Amino acid sequence: MTIIKTKGLSKEWNGKPLFQNIDLDITAGERIAFFGPNGIGKTTLLLTLLGKIEADGGTIERRLPLESWGWLNQHITAGLEQTALEFVFAGNPPLDRTRKEMLEAQAALHDSAMKEEEYSFWMERYTQAYESFLSLDGYEWERKAERSLLQLKLEPQLWHEPFAKLSGGQKTKAQIARQIAAEPKLIVLDEPTNHLDRESLEWLERWLQSYDGTILFVSHDRAFLDSVADAIYELSSAGCKRYAGGYSEYRKQKQIELQTQQTMYRKQEQEREALLACIQRYKQWFQVAHRDAAKVEDPVTKGFWQARAGKNVSRFHAKEKALERLEQNRVDMPKQAPSVHVRFGHDAIAANTLLKTERMTFGYNDRSTLFRDVSLSIERNERIAVIGPNGAGKTTLLKLLLGHLQPTAGSVTCNPQVKAGYFSQELEQLENGESALDQLLGLPDMTQSQARTILGCFLFSRDDAFKKPEEMSMGEKCRLAFIKLYFSGANLLVLDEPTNYLDIDTRERMEEAFQRFPGTIVIVSHDRYLIDKLATRIVLIDGGAVTQYAGTYREFTERNSAKGAVTAEEQSLLNELQRLELDFSTLMVKNTGDDPEQNEQLLQDARNIRTEIERLKKTMKDAKS
C-alpha cells in the first residue's frame, strides 16, 4: 500500500532550484534512503515530507497521518532543558502527558498540610491519571524506554543530565531510544549514524532490520545503506531516480548505466559521422548533376541530369532529417569523475619500522587509566585502522604516537626519518584569512596549474577556490585540510575521522587518494566501508585493552562474529541481564527516607539482584567457553 506519493515536487533556496521534479512512491514497510551530494536538498526534502517546510511546487499525498511519524533530527532546538530520560519519554506525547499528571498529583498528595477537599481533588486526579496510564500500558512503555537507553550504552548516570549537555553521540542515542519507545509507524532519520561508535551502529542496524514500520533516511554511511536500505532514491538537479537495494547494488546499477551510456554514445557518434559523410556525398553528387545539366542543350540529356540532381537533393534532405532526429535523441558523453594524478615527492624512508611503543601506559589521572602496557609497532607502507567505542581513547592513542602527549609509563620511539602529517577533528592546519588556492600554493613545489587541478578533483569549483575557511562549510574545510595534508610531503599520515561531514562522492575521491599514497597511514574512523577498503591491520581499543588483528576489516568482523555469535538462548539471557541491571540502577537511586526497615529491605533486594546478575554473567561466560 502506498503511504507517500509526490508529483513534481520542487523547492528553491535563495532563488536557486534546490531540487525539482521529485516523484516518489513509497509503500508501507519499505526502507528508503535519499542519496546525493551535499547541497542537493536531501534534508530539505525530508523536512518537506514532514510538513516542516512548504514546497514551492508539486504535490504531496500522505496516506499516513503525521502524528504516526517519528523524526530523528540533526539540529534539535526545543526540549534542550529536559533530562535525557524526559526527552525520551516526550517521544510519546499522550503517555508522557498522563505520566506528568500522575507525578504532579502524587507530589501534591505528599503535602501534609493539605485540606481534605484539596486532598480529594488531587486523589481523584491521581486516580484518573493512574488508570489512564495503566490502560496505555505506561509501565511497560517506561521500561522499554529505559531498556533502549541501556541497549544503546547510554548509562543510567546520564539519564538525569540535561539533554543540552550530552555529547553528539549521546544525543543521537537518546533520539534513537525515543523513537524505539514511541514505536511510530514511519521513522524519518537524518544522518542517524553521526557520532555513533561501531557497537552502537551495529545495534541500530539490527533494530532497524527488525522494525516493521516504514523508514525514510539520509546517510553517508555506505555500510549502513547496504545493511538497511531496500531502495535508494538518487537526487540530482534534474529530479530523482529509484534504484533497488543498498549502496553496493546502486553502484552496480550505476556502472551498468554508465557502460550502456558509453555504448550508446559511441554508436550514435558513429551514426552521426556516417550521416554527415552521406549528406556531404549527396551534396557533391547534386552539385555535379546540377552542373552537368547546365552544360547541355539537349532536352533529354538535361532532363536526365536534372532528375539526378533532384534525386540527390531528396536523398541528402532525408539524411538531414535523420541527423536532426539523432540530435534530438542524442545521448550525452558520460562524465568521468576527475582523478588525482598529480604526484609530489614524499620523503622516502629506508627503515621498516616507523614508530614503536613499548609497554606504554596512559591515563589523565591516577584513577583514569585509558590503556596499559601497549606494545605496538607501525611498519612502512602499512594501513592501520584504530577502532573502538566512543571514549575508549582512540584520539589519545594518535596523540601519543605523534608525541603530542607523553605516556605515564613505557615509551614511544619514532624513527628520525619520519615526517608525520596529522588530520585532527579540530582542523587546526587551516589558516583563516587565506583562500583555498593560496593555502595550496604555500605547499612545497606547488604550481598554480597543479593547485587548481587538485581543487577541481576535490569538488572545489573555480569560485570555491577563492573561499577562505571562515566562509566554508564543514565539508569544504575537511576537504581542504585533507588536500593540504596529502600533498605536504609527509610519509606518515595520522588521520582522526577525516571523512566526517563529507558526502559519498568526496569520500570515494579520498579513498582513491589513500590507495595512491606511497607512505604509511594510521586512521581512526567510524566509516566501515572506508576501513574495509583501506586497512591491512586493525587495532581495537576497548575497556582499556589494546588488541591487534592482522588482515582486513572484513576478516576482523568475520573472526569476531564467529566468536561472538549470539544464540536465541544467549540473547534471552542478555535481555534478562539488562533488565536486572536496570532494576538494580533504579533501586540504587530510590529514596526511602529514614525508615530503617525500608532501608534494610532495599539493601536486601539490591543484594539479591546483584547475586542474580553475577549468576547470569557466569552462565553466559560458561556458555561461550
From TrEMBL:
Domain ABC transporter: 4-262, 355-568
Repeat recorded as keyword: yes
Gene Ontology MF term list: ATP binding; ATP hydrolysis activity
Keyword terms of this UniProt record: ATP-binding, Nucleotide-binding, Repeat
PANTHER family for the chain: ATP-BINDING CASSETTE SUB-FAMILY F MEMBER 1, ATP-BINDING TRANSPORT PROTEIN-RELATED
Protein name: ABC transporter ATP-binding protein
